[in-house]
Amino acid sequence: MEILIAEDDPISRRILTALLTKWGYTVKAASDGAQAWSHLEGEASPRLAILDWMMPGMDGLEICRRVREKEASGDLYTYIIILTAKGAKEDIVEGMDAGADDYLVKPFDPQELRVRVRAGQRIVELQGQLRAAQEELRRQSITDPLTGVLNRRATMERFRLETSRAKREKRPLGVLMMDVDHFKKVNDSFGHICGDEVLKEMARRVRSGLRDYDTFGRMGGEEFMAILPGTTLSLAESVAERLRVAVSSKPINTCKGPIGVTMSVGVTQWAEEEELERTMDRADRALYLAKKRGRNRVEVLDLDESPTSLVEQAGT
């Protein structure tokens, strides 16, 4: 664990560094308040700090206040021990009010320092574990448990964010609706476990063919949706064709052996000021058109095309 020492007295700084190094810690030392703050304001800052109260430029309490303000915006917690010659109760209260977690009066006993540092380390580690658990819960809340891609709720939320960005930046937004062809037959013929394997591999192939900032999610069953920022309708069609080939070009290995599957894709784009449901309905109709025209294909539905007439043509 890395610990920051901020101490303007060189002898005290060397003693602290030697003790902490002996106890197995990595030490980052600062000789004044400004230097200490420069270490603490970065993203990879130490999570435990021992700060002298009185330092030139910026004292320990001011650093405490700045650290706590920084943490209010979501930064990781830093455990702070104030080190000072002041020992009156009102001084301790002032230090704690500024945001310090602990208080050690000079001259300090090395073993007392050691147990206080250990206590701080435990708190920092517990806070890290709690943060990791919260992040895992957040991830689970937005992820489809089978395929690992976004679930429907998270996909729709990202869709709303992308439409706002597209409107603000005056950029196109492509939308793909994808469906595994004859998926019910896969389940009926090979079982649901193999069906799950097909969906997982299909999702993996599609995800690997998209950009990091594209949105890809499972809308339910065997239907998936991709949102492509900055993508025109013609380019979205090219992307859809590439993804279709990636899924359909070779069989998927399952517990029952290789299974050949194909995918149909409906392509459209979001129109400014258009409700999301209307865009999705157009993408669904394009997907339906691909199914009607034989599956394993890509169909495009532009804003000025009539979905009803196109579907009627597909049935003739």
Q: What does this protein structure show overall?
A:
- This protein is of the alpha/beta class.
- It has 2 domains: 2-142, Rossmann fold (3-Layer(aba) Sandwich); 152-314, 2-Layer Sandwich (Alpha-Beta Plaits).
- It is built from 11 helices and 12 strands.
- The chain has helices at residues 10-22, 33-40, 60-71, 89-97, 110-142, 152-169, 183-190, 192-208, 233-248, 276-292, 307-314, and strands at 2-6, 26-30, 48-52, 79-84, 102-105, 173-180, 215-220, 223-229, 252-254, 257-259, 263-269, 298-300.
- It has a 5-stranded parallel β-sheet with strand order 2-1-3-4-5, with helices on both faces. A 5-stranded mixed β-sheet has the order 7-8-6-11-12, with helices on both faces.
- Strand 7 (215-220) and strand 8 form a beta hairpin.
- Helix 8 (192-208) crosses helix 9.
- The termini are far apart.
For the structure shown, list the relevant keywords.
disordered C terminus; 5-stranded mixed β-sheet; Rossmann fold; Alpha-Beta Plaits; alpha/beta; 11 helices; 5-stranded parallel β-sheet; 316 residues
